[in-house]
Design a protein that fits this description.
The structure is a homodimer of 346-residue chains. By secondary structure, chain A is an alpha/beta fold. Chain A has 13 helices and 12 strands. Helix content of chain A is 40%, strand content 19%. In chain A, helix 5 links the parallel strand 1 and strand 2. The structure holds a DNA duplex (30 and 30 nucleotides).
Amino acid sequence: MGSSRRVTLADVAERTGLSKTSVSLILNNRPGSRLSADAVLRVQAAAAELGYRPDPAAQSLRLGKTRTIGFLSDEVTVTRFASAMIRGVLDTAEQREHTVLIAETGRDPQKTAPALDAMLARRADGIIVGLMGAKEIDVPAIASGVRVVLLNASSPTGEPSILPDEESAGRAIARQLLDAGHRRITLIGDSHSAATDPRVSVTVGARFAGLDAALAEVGINFLERVPVEPWEPVGGYEAMQKMLNGPEVPTGIICSNDRLAFGAYQALQEAGWRIPNDMSVVSFDDDEIASYLRPGLTTAQIPYEEMGRHAVDLLLGGGEGRHLVPMPIIIRGSVGAPRGTEGFTS
Amino acid sequence: MGSSRRVTLADVAERTGLSKTSVSLILNNRPGSRLSADAVLRVQAAAAELGYRPDPAAQSLRLGKTRTIGFLSDEVTVTRFASAMIRGVLDTAEQREHTVLIAETGRDPQKTAPALDAMLARRADGIIVGLMGAKEIDVPAIASGVRVVLLNASSPTGEPSILPDEESAGRAIARQLLDAGHRRITLIGDSHSAATDPRVSVTVGARFAGLDAALAEVGINFLERVPVEPWEPVGGYEAMQKMLNGPEVPTGIICSNDRLAFGAYQALQEAGWRIPNDMSVVSFDDDEIASYLRPGLTTAQIPYEEMGRHAVDLLLGGGEGRHLVPMPIIIRGSVGAPRGTEGFTS
DNA sequence: TAGGGCTGCTAAATTGATTTAGCAAGAAGA
DNA sequence: TCTTCTTGCTAAATCAATTTAGCAGCCCTA
């Protein structure tokens, strides 16, 4: 008993009276190697009995493949946000019998190169670069020789990438309000830089474009577009508060993310407004808090887990270009008919 | 140009005109190997110039060490909760030049054994088993031969473990209210099973014991202990609502976690109570939402990142027994003087 | 001037799996 | 009867590192 030495191919060979070659051939069932049915059975039995598992180090050395993929992120691991991205990556990698090395650069882009370097030193077969917020980034040139896939990111050098389909989501979210009869709609969380500079965001532009397109289809524009920076609860709170005291009070608002919506809820509740009776709210992200709010927040989910899965498939399976992953609309209780039109039907 | 072959020890040897042996000796600067100063310099220069990096697969094979640690968790990766735990693990592992393999079992304890097995198959040098909520678990016997450290968990078999110091935190949190003058205090989120059954929680008992001890020091007991199951916002909301309409309304409440406190906030705000003027609230966890609430929630932080760091140090550095990590008290704006005693000083 | 010790370096074994090249024995064909 | 296939199997090379054992040369000494 106790922990004896690892079981090696040689042990299985000895136990069966065959050579290492034969055992290897059988366990990997190479076509063309004509071993007797009897030998096959004996080897399989012995391997199972001894609990033989090939040493991955030895395999890597011989085959030049590590069956390892590197996942490099800015701060995905840390945030409540996108740990789902990791889950997707991990899960799919496991299905494809790969191991995932995880490293983080934090907010500092300077750390990207050394982190990539470390993964290269570990001989990763491929690398996924994932970001918390979809941005355009530069992939350091050291990464030549390995395949790189961008997750929630894009690059001027055109590496294959996975992004959420924000334009469709924008349309769908706007339609939540429009279909309920709203025509006086305000956007909380406008951002010129995010909408136009891919270095700030590659997706927000599409998100806004989708919203605008849906409004245009029914011939309206936003009542107002309130810029907020950054998209945190306190900003949503202040924007909402000001709006309620302003001249143009909408019947529905679209928040650029759930944290802004969270702040807007606080301001509405303090002012005694009821959601969705007095005001409808929709949003983007499907952050954890969206389900805690009362009433629950209707929002367009960023499908982090799905995106993570796709990234692994793209990395290992091959393929180029941008891949858009659909964003599900999570319908909760924050949308109602506009005030004063209780009997409205679309 | 392009990706030429990997640089190996043999390349460095050839470039310097020395043998692989000498190069290896120099790069690992073995004591006792008396290579000339000139040779040392040449080798170092050549290695740097060629960008030589030892192949980890070859090293693992030869040395029998993979410099890899496995991190197996129930659902840490996924939750907003404890991804900080991973960050701590990752960061410390990197400092110690180790790679981390991450795997998840989900809620299903049946998956633990196969997941451990997969890590063993990859020849991890050691394994950390981390849980989202601190519980007692069984470590499958397969894990013999590798060192296992429990993170936010303990086991009947006495593996070394890292846990938060909940008793001290319980005392400190209670004192937040006591020192502000509160004597009518209610607990939201009592749980008999969590307090007494280590399979449900190993820490909640200590947390409650700390609270009780602090109250006892000033000669009081809880006004009421409201059981809630599970500890989610809706439970806190309902408990608070009922309490406000009940006979025994406290001046301060202690919630067993931040999500309960979140629900309690919602009920208080709906009822028109002001925090901290009309009611003080303290809690445990320091979930992300604790900082979003208005006013910010005073809470005892579970130091996930610190715990992750300690786990790696414990795994790699050796040591036995339970290690308690202090829980910082995060003071925000949810505690004030009890209603009607504005001038009170302790 | 042979023996001992030191200095500077290296050949070869080792780690575990895969793979190439090919051996021996029997069957089939000429 | 000899050649040519097939069948069933294996020896040895290979991957890139580390490490053991030890080889020359030179100096010093008795």
